[in-house]
């Protein structure tokens, strides 16, 4: 899940963007939360010194770069504005399932990434627990490999095997790999022309011109007039705020994440390992030959203060799992300072007939800016990639065929994506809530009835079955 710093937001109206034709917003960094106050509205006239652009994308994250590359493949140029001095390559890794890989293949970068990251076996266990909504406590999850078979064995603390599965029996087409965020962004950016991304381009003001275009003023004074604005500016998106969307909701869990580095080669098989404890769950998975991603998710009544000191983050993470298997502690100790982070988990539910639409006029939201979701299904990045493909096709048809307007194309994008996004966001939230429970009755039912007799993996994998035609 992409995260962005909080922003001070001053909106020139009490109303949402969909209710007026000349919105204006001002914002700057440096505050710990968003604040809104009304000021007067105005329609401004175009100036001779404004740079003219057909399509501007705000944010060079996964959604922004994927959308730019998708449009580029169809011969449509965009300008990507990124407030940072370079790509936002901090953080750890993300897990992509087969729907994410189909999108990357459509964009044309799938094979380049496959060659750098290990294909994971045994991810089905996480999905098994997702389907049950059960937190496993005091159990070890053992992945065993026999000749020609990847076997997943679920065992209790006393060594009793509850059940085993063969992943490919349920879905032969499934593909799961953990991908470094840095490498994904750099690969996408490499597909764009050298001048496609404008770094150090922090927005200071957004206004609507009298001819309906969006006027963007950067902090350095540069002004850009855009016919189309695609907002991919993350979970704290100022554009989403302007369009009437509420702040993302904190779901009651925080997570430590890290990317352990083994210069001589990491010792783990390409399998996901999960460990569940009271109010805490953790896991680790090899990403490449030298790196292993790990996470620790824990209950917290509030997000708490922002902490960036890696020594404090490392100490807090170790404290949560101090009595757990030593390999998890070793991974934390082998994590470079710049790859250990702590985030609060948030989401936004797109309620039918209540939430604002994904677009208004020639402005549209993509990825986390529209639908932040918790990482419990591993679908945040996958859905952002799906968004980029669907939006590209709708927009390209409007631009090239002229049979439909850009505004109608954006509405069609929102209508098509909402039935996909809303259920996944809700399900991801419920999974996180259920996996944090501590109930001995549920554990007994799980061990003696649900796991041995009722579980099927097929339905658990269903939401990765997203199909679309190549660009």
Describe the overall structure.
There is one protein chain. The longest helix is centred in the last third of the chain and has 30 residues, at 406-435. Residues 1-44 and 122-162 have low confidence and may be disordered. The protein has helices at 62-73, 98-107, 110-114, 124-132, 167-170, 181-189, 238-242, 310-320, 326-333, 380-401, 406-435, 440-454; strands at residues 8-11, 24-28, 51-58, 79-81, 93-96, 139-146, 149-156, 161-166, 177-180, 197-198, 203-208, 214-218, 223-231, 249-261, 273-277, 280-286, 291-299, 341-347, 359-360, 363-365. It is α+β, with helices and mostly antiparallel strands and 471 residues long. Strands 1, 2, 3, 4, 10, 11, 12, 13, 19 and 20 form a ten-stranded mixed β-sheet that branches. A five-stranded antiparallel β-sheet has the order 15-16-17-14-18. A three-stranded antiparallel β-sheet has the order 6-7-8. Pfam families: FAD_binding_3.
């Amino acid at each position: 899940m992409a995260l962005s710093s909080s922003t001070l937001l001053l909106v020139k109206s009490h109303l949402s963007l969909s209710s007026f034709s000349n919105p204006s917003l001002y914002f700057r960094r440096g505050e710990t939360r968003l604040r809104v106050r009304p000021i007067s509205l105005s329609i401004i006239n175009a100036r001779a010194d404004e740079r003219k652009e057909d399509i501007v994308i705000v944010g060079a994250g996964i959604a922004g770069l994927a959308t730019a590359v998708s449009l580029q493949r169809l011969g449509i140029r965009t300008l990507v504005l990124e407030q940072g001095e370079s790509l936002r390559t901090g953080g750890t890794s993300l897990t992509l399932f087969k729907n994410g890989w189909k999108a990357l293949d459509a964009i044309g970068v799938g094979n380049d990434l496959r060659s750098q990251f290990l294909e994971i076996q045994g991810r089905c266990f996480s999905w098994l627990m997702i389907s049950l909504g059960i937190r496993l406590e005091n159990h070890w999850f053992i992945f065993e490999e026999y000749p020609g078979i990847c076997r997943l064995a679920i065992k209790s603390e006393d060594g009793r095997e509850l059940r085993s599965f063969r992943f490919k029996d349920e879905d032969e087409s499934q593909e799961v790999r953990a991908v470094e965020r840095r490498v994904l962004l750099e690969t996408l950016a490499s597909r764009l022309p050298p001048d496609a991304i404008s770094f150090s381009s922090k927005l200071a003001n957004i206004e609507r011109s009298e001819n309906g275009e969006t006027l963007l003023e950067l902090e350095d004074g540069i002004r850009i007039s855009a016919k189309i604005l695609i907002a991919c500016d993350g979970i704290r998106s100022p554009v989403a705020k302007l369009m009437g969307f509420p702040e993302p909701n904190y779901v009651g869990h925080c997570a430590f994440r890290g990317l352990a580095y083994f210069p001589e080669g990491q010792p783990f098989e390409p399998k996901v390992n999960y460990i569940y404890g009271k109010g805490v769950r953790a896991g680790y998975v090899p990403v490449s030959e030298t790196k292993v991603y790990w996470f620790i998710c824990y209950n917290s009544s509030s997000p708490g203060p922002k902490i960036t000191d890696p020594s404090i983050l490392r100490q807090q993470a170790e404290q949560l799992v101090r009595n757990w298997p030593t390999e998890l502690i070793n991974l934390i100790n082998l994590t470079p300072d710049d790859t250990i982070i702590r985030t609060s988990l948030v989401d936004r539910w797109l309620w039918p007939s209540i939430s604002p639409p994904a677009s208004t006029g020639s402005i549209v939201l993509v990825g986390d800016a529209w639908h932040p979701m918790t990482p419990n299904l591993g679908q945040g990045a996958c859905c952002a990639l799906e968004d980029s493909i669907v939006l590209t096709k709708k927009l390209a048809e409007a631009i090239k065929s002229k049979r439909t307007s850009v505004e109608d194309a954006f509405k069609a994008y929102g209508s098509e994506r909402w039935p996909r996004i809303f259920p996944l966001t809700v399900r991801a939230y419920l999974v996180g809530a259920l996996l944090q429970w501590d109930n001995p009755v549920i554990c007994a039912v799980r061990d003696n009835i649900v796991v041995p007799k009722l579980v099927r993996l097929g339905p658990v994998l269903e939401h990765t079955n997203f199909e679309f035609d190549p660009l």
